[in-house]
Design brief:
The complex is a heterodimer. Chain A is of the alpha/beta class. Chain A is 37% helix and 11% strand. Classes of the chains: A alpha/beta, B mainly alpha.
C-alpha cells in the first residue's frame, strides 16, 4: 500500500521516440481507461480528442457514445492498439499488466491514481495540461477549490460505516478515496484503520464499532432490510434511522471533476441542517 | 469396533460441545456487557448455521459414499456444492426479491449437477470411483468459473464470488431471512432424519448394487431419493453459507473409523462430528484474521492432511 501510494503522484510518461510531449499536438488521439479521467477530459472541453473509453465511462452523457475498448477491469489490448492512440490513460493496480504491454509497444501512457482530494485537483490540472487545455483546467480547478473551501470544518465527527457488499459484509478501509471524502465531510470511517482497501468484516465488528451513520453502496438490501438485521437493533445508526442508500456512487469513488459534489453529498448526510 | 463405540460418541460429542462453546465465547465483538445481548444474538445464529451446515454436509457425504460405494463422494468433490453456488448466485444477482429464492436456486443447481455428474460417471451401468470424481471435478471447475462470470456480469465484487465458492458463516440475517433460515433448518433436520430412516437400504447398497437387488432393495428408488434429498440439503445450505470443502468428504471416514460402516451409526455420528469440525474451523477462520477467512481455507488445511493419511493407508 505505502509503496503504491508513494508512486501515486509520479506521472509515468513514456513518450514515443525521443520524449516529445503529446500535449498541444492537435489531432491527438486519446484512450481513457479510467472513468474519472474521462470525466476530466470532458470537463476541460477536450472531449473531441477521446477516441476510446470503457463501458464504465458513463459521464457525461457524451462519453457513452465513444468507442468502447472493454470493461474498466478488463480492457482489450488489441482494441486499444487498433485505435493508434497518442496517449492512453490508465490506473493501478487495475491495469498493471496492460501498462507493461503498452510500455513495451512504446505507446505513451499516463497512470492516474490520485489518493486524496488535493491530489485529485492536481490530477485535473495535469490531465488538462497533457491535452493542451491548461487554461480550462486552471479555471475548473479554481472554481472547484472555491466550492471545496466553502465547506465548513465540522466540530462533531460521527462514526460512519460504509457497506459495499451485503454477503459477505464488505466495507471500504483506509487508503480508499471514499475514506478521504468521509474525513473531509466531517465523518470518521469506523474501518478506516484497515490496511485492506475493501476488507470483509464480521457482523460483530460492526456492532462493536457502533456507527452513527450507515451508507449502503450496493443493491442487495434496502434500508429496511438492514434496519431489521438480527442483533443490529442497538447500533446508533439503526436506532436513529440514519441509514442511507441509493446514493450516486460515482461521486464517491471517482477522483474527478465531481469530487466536491461527493464531499457535499456526504457532508449533507452526516451533518443535516448545517 | 464395538468397544470403540462409547469413547467414540463421547469424543465427537465433546468436540461439538467444545467447538460450540468456543464459537459462542470468542469473536471480534468481544464479550462486553453493554451489547452482550446483541452479540449473543449474532453468535447463536452463527452457531445454529454452523451446526446445520456442518451436520448436513457430513451426512450427505456419508450417504453418497455409501450409496455409490465410493470413498471420494461428497457434495464438494461431486461438483454439487459448486452447482448449488451457481444456482444461488444466479438468484442473488437477479435482485432483492429474487434473492429470497436463493435456496430454491441452490437446490435446482445442486440437482442438475448431481444428475449430470451421475450420467457422465455411469459407464455400462456402473459408476466408477474415478469416473465420478473426474466428472465432479470437471463440473466443479465449470461452475466455479460460471459463479465468477455471473458475479462479474451482475456487477458484484469479486469478494462476493470468492466467499460464495469458498464458504463462510458470516451471514447477517434480516428480520425476513431469519425465518427463511428457520424453515431451512427444519428442512435440513428432516432430510437428515430421512437418510437415517434409510440406513438399512444404504448398508445394503454399499455392498454393491447387484447384491442389493438380489436382497430385494429397489436400488433405483433409493438412488433417486438420496439424490433428491442430497440436492435439497446441499442447495439450501450452500445458499446461506456458500460452498464449503472437505467436511462432507473427510468426516464420514473419520466416523467410520470410530463406529464401523453401519449407517445407523455413521449418519448421526457424521452429523455431530461434521457440526463440531465446521464450528471449530469457523472459530479459527474468524479469529485468525480480522474480518475472517473464507471457510474452505481452514477446512482444507484440516481436511487435506487427514485425506492424505486416508489415501496412503486405506483407499
Amino acid at each position: 500500500m505505502s509503496l503504491s501510494r508513494s508512486l501515486l503522484p509520479i506521472a509515468v510518461l513514456v513518450a514515443a521516440g525521443c520524449g516529445h510531449r503529446p500535449a498541444a499536438a492537435s489531432g491527438l488521439r486519446v484512450v481513457s481507461l479510467v472513468p474519472s479521467v474521462t470525466e476530466i477530459i470532458y470537463a476541460v472541453g477536450a472531449g473531441g480528442v477521446l477516441v476510446g473509453n470503457t463501458n464504465q465511462c458513463d459521464y457525461p452523457e457524451a462519453a457513452k457514445g465513444v468507442y468502447k475498448v472493454g470493461d474498466f477491469m478488463t480492457p482489450d489490448l488489441e482494441r486499444i492498439v487498433a485505435l493508434r492512440p497518442g496517449l492512453v490513460f490508465l490506473t493501478l493496480p487495475m491495469h498493471q499488466q496492460l501498462l507493461a504491454k503498452l510500455k513495451e509497444m512504446k505507446l505513451p501512457v499516463y497512470v492516474s491514481r490520485p489518493a486524496d482530494i488535493p491530489a485529485a485537483f492536481k490530477e485535473i490540472d495535469t490531465v488538462a495540461r497533457l491535452l493542451g487545455r491548461k487554461a480550462a483546467g486552471d479555471s475548473l480547478v479554481a472554481s472547484m477549490r472555491k466550492r471545496f473551501d466553502s465547506i465548513p470544518a465540522f466540530a462533531d465527527t460521527p462514526r460512519v460505516y460504509v457497506e459495499i457488499s451485503g454477503t459477505p459484509l464488505m466495507t471500504a478501509g483506509g487508503g480508499t478515496f471514499i475514506n478521504e471524502l468521509l474525513a473531509r465531510a466531517g465523518g470518521r470511517n469506523v474501518f478506516g484503520s484497515s490496511l485492506q482497501e475493501y476488507p470483509v468484516v464480521d457482523p460483530e465488528a460492526v456492532l462493536k464499532a457502533d456507527p452513527e451513520v450507515m451508507l449502503l453502496l450496493h443493491p442487495d438490501m434496502s434500508v429496511r432490510d438492514v434496519a431489521s438485521r438480527v442483533g443490529w437493533g442497538g447500533i446508533g445508526a439503526v436506532k436513529h434511522g440514519r441509514i442511507y442508500d441509493k446514493l450516486d456512487e460515482d461521486l464517491l469513488f471517482r477522483p474527478g471533476p465531481r469530487v466536491v459534489d461527493g464531499v457535499v453529498l456526504l457532508a449533507k448526510l452526516l451533518h443535516p441542517g448545517q | 469396533m464395538q468397544k470403540r463405540l462409547l469413547p467414540g460418541w463421547v469424543g465427537i460429542i465433546l468436540l461439538l460441545v467444545a467447538s460450540a462453546a468456543l464459537s459462542v465465547a470468542v469473536g471480534p465483538g468481544g464479550f462486553a456487557r453493554t451489547n452482550l445481548g446483541a452479540v449473543m444474538d449474532l453468535r447463536l445464529l452463527r452457531l445454529a448455521l454452523g451446526i446445520i451446515a456442518g451436520g448436513v454436509l457430513a451426512v450427505v457425504g456419508a450417504s453418497l459414499q455409501g450409496l455409490l460405494q465410493n470413498p471420494l463422494a461428497d457434495p464438494f468433490t461431486m461438483g454439487v456444492a459448486s452447482g448449488a453456488a451457481l444456482g444461488a448466485s444466479l438468484t442473488l444477482v437477479l435482485g432483492r426479491t429474487a434473492g429470497a429464492f436463493a435456496p430454491v436456486g441452490g437446490f435446482a443447481g445442486a440437482l442438475v449437477t448431481m444428475l449430470v455428474v451421475y450420467a457422465l460417471a455411469r459407464v455400462r451401468g456402473r459408476v466408477t470411483v474415478t469416473g465420478l470424481v473426474l466428472a465432479g471435478v470437471i463440473m466443479s471447475f465449470l461452475f466455479s468459473s460460471l459463479v465468477m462470470l455471473v458475479m462479474i456480469l451482475g456487477r458484484r465484487t469479486l469478494g462476493e464470488a470468492v466467499y460464495m465458492m469458498m464458504g463462510h458463516l458470516g451471514v447477517v440475517f434480516t428480520g425476513k431471512t431469519v425465518w427463511l433460515f428457520g424453515a431451512a433448518a427444519v428442512l435440513a433436520v428432516a432430510g437428515c432424519a430421512w437418510f437415517f430412516s434409510m440406513s438399512r437400504s444404504l448398508d445394503i447398497m454399499s455392498s454393491g448394487e447387484e447384491a442389493a437387488e438380489t436382497l430385494g432393495v429397489d436400488t433405483q428408488r433409493v438412488t433417486k431419493t438420496v439424490f433428491v434429498i442430497s440436492s435439497v440439503l446441499v442447495g439450501v445450505v450452500v445458499s446461506f453459507t456458500g460452498a464449503i470443502s472437505f467436511v462432507g468428504l473427510v468426516v464420514p471416514h473419520l466416523v467410520r473409523m470410530l463406529f464401523g460402516p453401519a449407517h445407523r451409526r455413521v449418519l448421526p455420528g457424521s452429523f455431530v462430528a461434521g457440526a463440531g469440525i465446521l464450528l471449530l474451523s469457523d472459530v479459527l477462520a474468524r479469529n485468525i484474521v480480522p474480518g475472517g477467512l473464507p471457510l474452505s481455507i481452514v477446512t482444507a488445511l484440516v481436511g487435506v492432511p487427514f485425506f492424505i493419511y486416508l489415501l496412503r493407508s486405506r483407499l
